[in-house]
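tool_call: predict_structure(chain=1)
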Amino acid sequence: MDGTGSGKFDFTSFTGKGVKVAIVDSGIDPSHPDVGEVAGGLRVRTDEGGKLLFDENWIDEVGHGTACAGIVRKKAPDVLLYSVRIFEDASLSAKGEVLVEAIRWCLENGMKVINLSLGTTRRELVPSLEARLDKEGGDLSL
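tool_result:
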């Protein structure tokens, strides 16, 4: 693999059977023909006062997370997809605390792969994410 976390992998024999994959994004639309079954998920957001809120409304209303899920499903058709919705609208923006809580949920719920098709200007979050992943025995590829 190169420094971006991408590289060549032989997907011809890998189906992902039993592997839990979280798509942390705008949600997933399970009715999309390229996605299919979604095993579960949650939405993480904040109220007007900044309090973290959690609910089960993880369905995508924007399309970005669904597109990411479709790519994962094409490469590994038997994975267990989980939707972790952190984006509420087409701006695709969320507070850093929401992202951290979403990743915490993923780790606590046994996700083996966490897809983060996003960027941040808050580099100060990276050390705490790396520390948590080290504790859980994971890797962070940027």
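agent: The mean pLDDT is 86. Proceeding to next step.
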